[in-house]
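INFO batch 0412 | record 1 of 1 | parsing
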Amino acid sequence: MGLAVALSSACVTSTSPTAPSPLATADAGAIAVDTVVAADLGTGRCLAINARGQVVGVDEDDTTFLVAPDGTRSVLRPPDSGTLVTGVAIDDAGRVGGYATTSSERYPVVYQGGTWSRVGLAGVAGEIITLSADGAAGGATYGSDGSPKAFLL
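INFO prediction complete | emitting tokens
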């Protein structure tokens, strides 16, 4: 039996079993895995995978990328040159959630249909940290003192 995995340090994923893995050792209450196979998805860090096998991550320049189930890798470009966007979650429809950072603010964003869009209240610092399979977004906003407040959209 194989298992699809994303290993963040090597940014790899696969569903074809061929080689045993140290992950195959089960502790009490853990699920036993027969084999895990890793496929090279390129440089960077994989941060999330959805049920369709799409992987979101960031490369060595902190640029967000998306890898399709067939291995095609595409860059999710920020809205402008002064904004760094980091995608950290992906739902089953392929929407990516994360945060955008400029010289003056950090705010939650969603990538859908080729475009990053701000979500939440304008002028409120925050980030999307997770997306459910059906697209509900969880994250945090930050007060002027930096204290976090959890949100669910």
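INFO post-check: Residues 1-26 have pLDDT under 50 and may be disordered.
INFO record closed
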